[in-house]
Amino acid sequence: MSIDIQGLHKRFGNFVALENINLEIPAGQLVALLGPSGCGKTTLLRIIAGLETADEGNILFDGEQASQHARDRRVGFVFQHYALFQHMTVFENIAFGLRVRPRSRRPSETQIRAKVHELLGLIQLEWLAPRYPSQLSGGQRQRIALARALAVEPHVLLLDEPFGALDTKVRKELRRWLRRLHDELHVTSVFVTHDQEEALEVSDQIVVMNHGRIEQIGTPEEVYDAPATPFVYQFLGNINLFHGRAHSGWVRLGGLRLQAPEYQDAQHVPAMAYVRPHDIDLLREPEDGDTTIPARITRISILGSLVRLELLQTEDGEITEVEMTRERFAADQLKTGDLVFVKPRHLRVFLQEEENQTTPLPHWQGHGDGI
Amino acid sequence: MSAPIPKTLSTTTEPPLIRSALLGVALIFLSLFLFLPLVAVFYEALRKGIGVYLAAISDPYALSAIQLTLLSVAFAVPLNMVFGIAAAWAIAKFEFWGKSVLITLIDLPFAVSPVIAGLIYVLLFGAQGWLGPWLAEQNIKIIFAVPGIVLATVFVTVPFIARELIPLMQAQGTEEEEAALVLGASGWITFWRITLPNIKWGLMYGVVLCTARAMGEFGAVSVVSGHIRGLTNTLPLHIEILYNEYQFAAAFACASLLTLLALVILAIKTLIEHYTSTQRQPSSAGETA
Amino acid sequence: MMSRLRQPSVLPGFGLTLGFTLGYLCLIVLIPLAMAFSKAFEVSWSEFWGIVTAPRVLASYRLTFGASFLAAAVNTGFGLVVAWVLVRYRFPGKRLVDALVDLPFALPTAVAGITLTTLYSSNGLIGQFLKPLGLKVAFTPLGIIVALIFISLPFVVRTVQPVLEDLEHEVEEAATSLGAGRWQIFYRIIFPAIRPALLTGFTLAFARAIGEYGSVIFIAGNLPMVSEITPLLIVSKLEQYDYQGAAAVSVVMLIISFILLLLINLLQRWSRLRHG
Q1: What is the ipTM of this complex?
Q2: Domain range C42-275, its CATH number among 1.10.3720.10, 3.30.450.20, 1.10.630.10, 3.90.650.10
Q3: Residues of chain B contacting A, Cβ within 8 Å
Q4: B&C contacts, CB < 8 Å
Q5: Domain ranges of chain C
Q6: Whole-prediction pTM value?
Q7: What is the C-alpha separation between B151 and B118, in angstroms, rounded?
C-alpha cells in the first residue's frame, strides 16, 4: 500500500514540529526517516499511524483518505521501547490484535494459535511463547514487538527507532534481519532513525529531515553522494569544511581557486565547500594553478582497513581529515610531520545566502523525540 | 524495601558503639509510642477475662456498630475507587491546562481536619443548614443518620486511591495503550485488558489504605452522627461511648477488633510492597536508553 | 477551546473521566467546603474577627499549633534515627519493625486515644513511672503532644527512608577517600541530601497533627484555655448550636491547612528537583 503525505503541518505550542511535509512512499518500499532528535521524524511517523493528529494536511493510503482513528488504519507500529504488554505472555502479546477484533471478524482459537506460531517461526523465537516480556533480552523483545505488529496483517509497518535501545552488536544483526524480513513480506515500511549507518544500510529510500522540514529524499547513494543541502552533507558521513568567497564563476577557498560556473552571477558572496575525507588526494609536490593546499600531517590513526590522517593547513591552521586505504597509505609512505599538498577530488560549494542553508551543525538537545 | 548493605562497606559506617546507641534510641522510641500501645490494647481487652471480652463484642449495640462501619466502608471504597481510576486516567494519560491545580484539589481532604469535614455537611444538610428545610419537607434525614456518616467517610477517604494511581500511571506512560489501540482494540478493551492489569497492585494498595481510614474515621463521623446507639454509632464511636461510661474492658474489646483489622491491613500492605518490589526488578533489565 | 486547553491524544475517555473527576470533587469536597466560608461570612468582618480572636479561641490555637509543632519536631528527630536504623543496619525483627511503623496510619484514632490515655495515666503502665518524676501526662497538654507524636509518627520516617535508600554509597566512599570523617560525611554529604525530605516529613506531620481530633480528646482533659484544642472547640461550638462560631473558626483552620498544603507541594517539587 502506498502512502501519500500532503502538506502536513504540526505544532506543539510554539514549537513547530512539522512544516509543510510532502512525501510519497511507493508500495512495498522500506523507507527511513533520518534526522537528529527533535527534527520531527517521530511526530511524522505517529501522524501516519494516527497516534497524533496533524494541524493541517492529508494522509492518503493507496490514494484514499486514511481513516480518522488509529485502530481502523491497519498499521503495524513498533515502539522504541517495545511497549510489550508486561502482564501477558509472548504468545498473548502476539495474539492480542486478533483477540480484540469484533466477534464477526475474529478468527477462531485454532486460527489464532496457528497465526501466532507462524509469526513466532518467522522471528525464530518459537520457544519463547510461554515467557513474559520481563524475561527476555532487548533484541528478543523487539522481535516480539514486530511479530505482534505483523499479526494483524497491517497494510503499513511503522517502526519508531526500532533498534535505538539495543547495543551495537544486536542492532547490526537485527537490521540485517529486518531487511531480509522486508524482502520476504514486502509490506510498505517506514522506520525512524537518527543513525545514518542504519538508514544507509537498510532502506530503499532515505528521507532526511531537519527542524520539521524535509531536506532531501533519495536512495542511499543519492543522499550520500549528492547531498542537496549543507545539512545533509554534514549529517551523513564525515566532511571537511572550507570557507571562502564566490565571485563571477570562481570560488576561492583559502589557497584553492576553483571554477564554479553555476555561480556566474555571484559577486563576492561568502561560500562554503564540503569535501568527504575519502575524496582527497595527498600530493608530495604542489600543482600549478591554485588547486592544492599545503598541510602538515599531525596524526595518523589506523582504523581496520582504512587509515585516517589529520592535517594542519600551514596557511591558516585549519584541520583537514583524510581517509585512504591501507595499500595507498603504504605506497605513499606518509609519516607524521610530513609536508603534503591537499587536493580535493570532489567538492561541493554552497553559497551563504539563506539563513537555513548555512546553519552549522547544532547541538541537538531538548525537544525530546518522543513528542 | 531496604537493600541489604554488604559487609565490605565498613569504611562508610559508624563505630559499633554509635550504631548500638542509635539502634537503641530508635527501638526505645518506637516501643514507647508504638509497640507498647499495641500490646496494651489486647492486654486491656482481655484483662477481665475472655467472658467479658466475648460479651462485649457480641453486644447488640456493638454488632450494629460493626454493621454500620462495614456499610460506610462498602460505600466509601468503591466510590473512591471509581473516582481514583477516573482521576488518574485523566491526569496521567492526558496533558491539559490546570492539571497541577486539580492534583492539589484531590489532596484537599487530607489537609482538612476531620471535624471540619463533619461540620461542612452539617452546614449543608443539617436542620439549620442550607438544604435543611428542603430536606425536612421531603422527609429525608442525612445528618444524625446513616447517609451523613457515609458522606463524611467518603469525604475523608477521597484522595487515597487516586494518590496511589496517579504517580503509578504517570510512570507507566501511554505506550502500551497506544500499542493496543493501533492493534485495533477499543477504548474499553484497552482499559480492561491493558491498563487495569498494569495498575492492579497499586489499586489494591490504595483500596487497603482507603479501607483502613474508612473503618477508623472518628472526628468527621462523630460530628454528623448524633451518637444514637444501635442506629448511628460506628465502631469507633461505640468505643468512645463505652470508654466514657468507664466500661474499659468492653471499650478495649471493641478496640482490639479494629486493631486486629489494622494489623491485617498492614500485613496486606507489606505483602503488596514486597510483591511489587520483587516484580519490578527483572522488567527494568532491558531499558538501557 | 478544548483543543487549546489540552493537547490532543489518541487515547479515549478524557471528557468522561475529567468530567466525572470534577463533578465528584465539586459534590463531595468543594461545594461542602464552600458552605463553611459562606456561613462564616454571613456576619460582618469585625464580628468574624471578634469570633476568631476571642481569648478562648486564641488559647486553642496556641495549644494546637504549639503541641503540633513540638510533636512534629520530636518526630523529625526520632524519625530520622528510625529511618537511618531501618535503612542502614541489620537487626533481628527489622522487617516487622519496618511494617509496624505504619501502624498509626492503620489504627483508628479513637483506639490510639483510649490506649495512650490508659498507658500514660498516673496509674498506667508508663504513667506510674513518670509520676514520681513529677510528670503528669494524661489530661494535660503533655498528653496532647504524646497523642500527636503517635498519630504523626510515620510521616518523617516514610519520607526520609526512600531518600536514604537511594543515596549512593560511592559518594560516601569518595568522601572517605578524600579524608572526611564519619560526622563530616553525615553533616556535609548526607544531611543536605535528605534535608528536603526531612522538611517535607515535618510539614506533613505538622499538617496532620493540627487537624487531629479522635486521639487527642481522650487524653487531653479538654479544659477550656488549658487543654482544649481547636477542633474540639469547633465541636463544642457546634454542640451549643453556635454554627456561626464553628464555621468562623473552621475557616481559619482551613486557610492555614491550605497554606500548609501548598507548602508541602512546593517542598515536594523542590526535593524532586534535587533528586531528578
Answers
A1: 0.88
A2: 1.10.3720.10
A3: 175-176, 178-186, 189, 193-194, 197-198, 282-283, 285-289
A4: 305
A5: 42-275
A6: 0.83
A7: 9
